[in-house]
Write a structure and sequence with these properties.
8% strand; 410 residues; elongated; single chain
């Protein structure tokens, strides 16, 4: 159904040597908790094991631990002994989180009579691999997750597991954006069949998955799949559906930092409408950034360089720090020039600013604090943007002229 943007993970470990290498890569001696502090039967599961297998562990990986019983009680005991903060994630299911010295450690009670039962109830087979935390413990892989990593496939454990926690429908696509994977056709059919269940998940969790997805290195290949599976119809912008989403190709002129600034915002703006962002409880700042970018992208003329002065000035004032996301939508021949000008903090149009501040104007012109100072600063910013006024002296001279003509504002 979906071909990965790169070849399958050909450097995956051979099963016979996987456990010892995973232990080495996880390096438990660097964890904020000694293994001896954990009860017998504790196992590491999920993302840390998967990422150790494909050698993509961050310096402080999130640790998901499964214990046979009393997970919340254990979280509190560990906090007392080693410090950190405990958060109750799910009291009914006995799941807690310990945040300790920059590490996040989730501790959950085993779901089922055995660890195999627990793994059989997880979302995707490559997440259903466990490492029992005993010296020399071997990998436990009852569903075939290691084979999936070897072949670069995303396969659900079973259909009911996806329905049990509908956020898993979206999480699979997020994993594909982070790791080059091909979606198993049957799994894809299950995701599409139960797409309407996603709305049962907490809005904040949906948005968090999407924000990780749009930042991921292989998102370009996954975004069309989101549309094909109709996963986000509830929150999409009807006017923006089926429009091509700018991707890595459009950001070729950008540095990695600029790309990281531009692509996630542009992708999110295309995936979610204004009402969708509201429903998913996005922050006020994120909603405003997407709304402003959407308006300028929609109203962009064929040749943005031909915009009249008022619109061009407003564009740079309203977007400024998010201008790289707008540049992704420009014609190819304009992108390099615009991003080069945006990189220059002293460019008067791309970073509008006056050469004097409000306190200086009040002192030099004898103006009292109030709206007139704001109007005057805005005028000076615009005059500088189009290089009609440059420097402190010229700005003060123009301020005096403007002040004399607009004394009725006082």
């Amino acid at each position: 159904m979906h071909m990965p943007p790169e070849a399958a993970l050909t450097d995956i470990l051979d099963p016979s040597e996987a456990a010892s290498t995973v232990w080495q890569r996880l390096n438990p001696g660097q964890w904020p908790l000694p293994l001896e502090a954990l009860p017998d039967g504790t196992a590491l599961v999920g993302g840390a094991v998967r990422d150790a297998l494909i050698d993509r562990l961050p310096s402080c990986p999130d640790l998901d631990l499964v214990v046979t019983d009393k997970a919340l009680e254990l979280s509190a005991q560990l906090s007392t002994s080693f410090g950190g903060t405990v958060v109750v994630l799910d009291e009914r299911r006995d799941i807690g989180r310990l945040v300790l010295r920059g590490w996040t450690i989730d501790i959950a009670r085993q779901d089922g009579q055995t660890l195999v039962d627990d793994l059989q109830r997880r979302d995707y087979r490559l997440n259903a691999i466990a490492l029992p935390l005993r010296p020399g413990g071997g990998l436990l892989d009852p569903t075939g997750g290691l084979r999936d990593l070897q072949s670069g496939r995303l396969v659900a454990v079973n259909e009911d597991n996806l329905k049990d926690d509908p956020l898993r429908l979206l999480r699979g696509l997020r994993l594909m954006a982070e790791i080059p994977l091909e979606l198993d056709p049957e799994t894809g059919a299950w995701i599409r069949r139960h797409r309407n269940l996603l709305g049962q998940s907490a809005p904040e969790r949906i948005l968090a998955e999407l924000q990780r997805l749009v930042r991921a290195p292989h998102a370009d290949g996954v975004l069309p799949l989101l549309d094909d599976l109709e996963l986000l119809c509830t929150w999409a912008d009807p006017a923006g559906q089926h429009r091509p989403i700018p991707g890595t190709r459009e950001s070729a002129e950008m540095t990695p930092d600029e790309r990281d600034r531009a692509l996630p915002l542009s992708r999110l703006m295309h995936l979610l409408g204004d009402s969708g962002l509201d429903q998913l409880r996005a922050s006020r700042q994120l909603r405003q950034r997407c709304r402003t970018l959407r308006r300028w992208v929609r109203n962009r003329p064929e040749d943005p360089d031909s915009m009249d002065e008022q619109d061009r000035y407003r564009l740079h004032c309203e977007l400024e720090e998010d201008l790289p996301a707008f540049i992704l939508h420009l014609p190819f021949h304009q992108r390099a020039t615009w991003i080069q000008r945006w990189r220059e903090p002293q460019d008067p149009l791309f970073h509008p600013a006056a050469d004097v501040d409000g306190l200086t104007l009040q002192r030099e012109l004898g103006i009292k604090p109030g709206p007139v100072v704001g109007h005057l600063l805005e005028h000076l910013k615009r005059e500088r943007a189009f290089q009609r006024v440059t420097g402190r002296a010229a700005s003060l001279q123009e301020a005096q002229r403007w002040h004399a003509l607009h004394s009725d504002l006082l």
